[in-house]
Every structure is written in structure tokens, then in C-alpha cells.
Amino acid sequence: MKKKFQKMAALMMGMVVMLAVLAITPGAEAATSTSSAGIVNVSSGSLNVRSAASTSSAILTRLPKGAYVTLISASGSFWRVEYASGKYGYVSATYIKKVSGTTTATVSLSSGYLNVRTGAGTSYAAKGRLTNGKVVVVLSSSNGWSRILYVGTQLGFVSSAYLKTAGSSMTWPVPASATLVQNFVSGSHLGIDISPSTQGVAGDRIVAAAPGTVVYSGSLSGYGYVVYINSYVNGQYIQTRYAHLKSAPSVSAGSTVSAGQTIGYMGKSGNATGIHLHFEVRIRHSSGTCVPNSESTPVNPLGYVSR
């Protein structure tokens, strides 16, 4: 009986120690909207990644000269970094050159995964996959593709259509309704369709999603009555399009609009089977008007507007 009691006591003590360890062990700190990118800037050799912000702490791994690394937060003269997927440590800030002009973005998918490719295009090989909600650091964007830093030190390219950039949210274009009847589908449905607040009833107010200049206003092919607005949002030349309006838009080409300004009313003009707003966000290839479709790349509007 005494031995049995001793075994039980030892087991309980072990559980107490384990719980204490768990209580003081910091949890994994994934990249967040405040993360950024750094480049290892040593004159030669490699940079030690340590278990704590001290040169006396254990070395977890080493990063070669010129390597990119995800910076999580500053800690005295050290950076807390993600050096591999779900793995974190500390590096001396003396040997890190912070990359300027970066932003963070969240992978925004309705299903499946996002391929990370070796170059900016679907013809390049896939080198990794990202799931919905993963935060990455965007180093640059061009022609619908973004060069990113992900899972700590990996570089690749992803379609900008499936990234929701931190801080890039614009005004929702239909104040009275947030219901979607069709989502963005790359290559086939180049925007989102928003239903009226009352099914089958036209007239909901449509507003500009961002401040900018109207570059097209009127009737156009399958769009029916439509407005194109050019804006500059978080370092990107953006064009928003508002199609199937009930009647001629309330703004004219050449006019300047503010975010939230009324530009027309919901209808079903053009090739529309029911009343809705077809709303597009496009990345312009230049600072010009970019009215022809070939001069801009459509991206998922849900990466730029929030309901």
C-alpha cells in the first residue's frame, strides 16, 4: 500500500511540474499585421538564432548572409524572428537590415489552398502552399502578382487576387446590403455581385469605395450603366468598377470623388439576370486612365473591402 501511495504521489508531482512548465513556456507567435522583413547583414559567415535575447543563450540555428527572415518584434538589441514554419528565436539587430516599404497580407480563400510559385505567373513551378488565414510579408507587387516572404525565410510569388492586405480595406460599395450572390472567380467572374437590401427591388445607393477620379461613366457593353474610378491605395494604382446601375451614373468622367460618395443606384442594366451590383477591383499597370481591360488586372475585391 505504501509503494502504491508513493507511485501516486510521484505521478502527481510529475503532473504539477509539467503544468508549471507549460504555464511559463511562451506559445508560438505567428506572423502578424505588424511583422516585417529583414535581411541578414553579416560581413561573412552566418548569423546565430538564439533561444533568448542574449548572446549567452543557446543557438537554435544559423542564417546565411543575405537570407530574408520574418521580423516579429523588437526586444532590446535583438529581433524576435520566425526562422522556419512555427519556429521562433532571437537574432542580434546589429546584423539585420530591415527591408523598407513592406506590408503584410492575409491569405483570403473560399476553399482549397494558394500555390506559392517560383516566379510571377502560373507557368512557374509551385514550390509551396498556403492555407486560408496565413499571414505573409509582401515585398513587392506587380501586374497581379506579389513577391512574398512566408514561413519565416522562404521567398516566392502568389496571385495578389488572394491576398488581403493589412490596412487596405476600402469602403463597402453598397451601404444597405452586404449579401453576396456571386464570388470572384479568377479568369471567369472578375468581381463580386452584391444583392439589393430587398430582393428584387432596385434603387439601393452605390458609393465610391475609395477616393479618386472617375475615368469612365455611362453605358458600356455587358456592364450596362457603369462607373470606373481610379484611385491610389496603399502604394497601388487601383481601379474600381460599378456595373449594372439602374440609370445613368450620378458622376461624370473627369470628376473627383471621395470615399462613400454616391455615384449611382443599383439596377440590372446590361447583361444582368437580376438586380445587383457587379463590383470589381483591378490593379492598374500604370498611373494612366487604364480604361481598356488589358491595362489592368482584376483581383478579388474581398481583399480590399470589408463587409
In short:
The protein has 307 residues and is mainly beta. The protein is built from one helix and 24 strands.
Task: Describe the structure in your own words.
The protein has 307 residues and is mainly beta. The chain is built from one helix and 24 strands. The protein has one helix at residues 2-24, and strands at 36-40, 46-50, 59-64, 68-75, 78-84, 87-92, 96-98, 103-107, 114-117, 126-130, 135-142, 145-150, 154-159, 163-165, 180-182, 192-194, 205-207, 212-220, 224-233, 236-245, 256-257, 262-265, 277-284, 296-299. Strands 15, 16, 18, 19, 20, 21, 23 and 24 form an eight-stranded antiparallel beta sheet that branches. The protein has a five-stranded antiparallel beta sheet with strand order 6-5-4-1-7, with no helix packed on it. Strands 13-12-11-8-14 form a five-stranded antiparallel beta sheet, with no helix packed on it.
